[in-house]
Amino acid sequence: MQIVSWNVNGVRASVGKGLIDIITQSGADVYCLQETKAQEDQVVEALADLDGFHIYANSATKKGYSGVAILSKVEAVNVTHDIGVPEHDEEGRVICAEFTDFYVVNVYVPNSGSGLKRLDYRATWDAAFRNYLAKLNEQKAVIVTGDFNVAHTALDLKNDKPNYNKTSGYTQVEIDGMSDILSIGLKDSFRELNPTTEKYSFWSQRFNARASNAGWRIDYFLVSETLMPKVTSAFIDNDVFGSDHCPVGIILS
């Protein structure tokens, strides 16, 4: 089973850049999208030419903002939106599809913003999301994927020292938030299988960052410890374009 995740930076714009073919050719059984920037019906309409997938989406109250979707060849047992905390549930950042053996949670974690103006909110969000995942993980195995907007270690961004505690996505507050999420019994699948690999999933649209590979690894697959032995591959597909992120994925035996 292959699961792929991609922050597409607008699903409707991405369809114009070949998203349907990219999903179809990926061979994925489940494909998760972040930052759809569309309401649920607009996501379904944008993906109308995608054959063989059930489409589940969650959108923000504010139109054209945030949004996540799970596309699955197998119909989900159940699908839920958000994390049950009103202050965090207006932005369409979480969708969970339950399957027989595990949950797939797709997340678009809030960015702390320029000047770290949203860092305090981000810290409360991380704590609430951790608690939400912990409850799920008590019921059955969890696969959590998406754009976490944090480089967890110095290996996960090109220029670690100049960015530390100065740039959104690489402050100690955000790093600690990610560590706390992992502490409930989750493993960073890419880092588990590629412990020393420096490979990135996001590049700023400024400074020609992608061409020079001055990137960040902020897109993850976190997997319950009990399920991790079944993960045979964890990959980052740098050869796919169409967004400031690229797809990441795992293969389960």
Give the structure's gist in a few sentences:
Helix content is 24%, strand content 27%.
Please describe the topology of this protein.
Elements: E1 2-7, H1 11-15, H2 19-26, E2 30-34, H3 40-46, E3 54-58, E4 68-72, E5 78-81, E6 94-98, E7 102-108, H4 119-139, E8 141-147, H5 160-163, H6 172-182, E9 186-188, H7 189-193, E10 202-203, E11 215-216, E12 219-224, E13 231-236, E14 248-252
Parallel strand pairs: 1-2, 7-8
Antiparallel strand pairs: 1-14, 2-4, 3-4, 5-6, 6-7, 8-12, 9-12, 10-11, 13-14
Helix pairs in contact: 4-6
What is the mean pLDDT? 97
Order of helices and strands: EHHEHEEEEEHEHHEHEEEEE
The neighbouring-strand order within the major sheet is 3-4-2-1-14-13
Helix and strand composition category: alpha+beta
Give the assembly state of these chains. single chain
- CATH topology, by name, is Deoxyribonuclease I, Chain A
The overall number of domains is 1
Q: Give the overall form.
A: globular
Name the beta content range. 25-35%
Query: Which architecture per CATH?
Result: 4-Layer Sandwich
Radius of gyration: 17 Å
Helical content (DSSP H or I, runs of 4+) = 10-25%
Helix tally?
7
Q: At the first level of CATH, what is the class? A: Alpha Beta
Mind summarizing the main beta sheet? 6 strands, mixed
Distance from N terminus to C terminus (CA atoms, Å) equals 7 Å
- Under CATH, the homologous superfamily reads Endonuclease/exonuclease/phosphatase
List unreliable stretches of 5+ residues: none
What is the number of strand segments? 14
